[in-house]
Amino acid sequence: MLKIAIHFQNGLEMRTFTGAKTGNVYTVLRTTRGSFHVLVETEAKAAARDCAAQGGGNTREQWKSLWGDTKAVRTRKLRARSKSKA
Q1: For the CA atoms of 81, 82, 84, 85, what is the dihedral angle to 10 degrees?
Q2: pTM for the structure as a whole
Q3: Could you say which of 3, 52, 78, 85 is the most buried, measured as most Cβ atoms within 10 Å of its Cβ?
Q4: The domain containing residue 39 runs over which residues?
Q5: Conformational region of residue 56, where left means phi above 0, alpha means psi within -120 to 50, and beta covers everything else
Q6: What are the pLDDT digits (tens) for 38-52?
Q7: Dihedral of the alpha carbons of 36, 41, 44, 48, in degrees to the nearest 10
Q8: What is the mean pLDDT of residues 3-26?
């Protein structure tokens, strides 16, 4: 099993794991606050279709159409969290 570990400068850590039963590849992010977020590997073309990519072109063209479509993108503003000293 191949494991990759990356430590980003801001404290975010990323590792990959392979599921023992399924063989799925999971990318796991751990925040500085200890929260875990998991991404699973999937076929890029299937994911683009699932996100309603326009056009029947190749995978890259489908993702380009999605990337520029602001209606397809959900964004969340992140507020800076500061630790107050008591």
Answers
A1: 150
A2: 0.55
A3: 52
A4: 5-67
A5: alpha
A6: 999 888 888 888 888
A7: -40
A8: 80
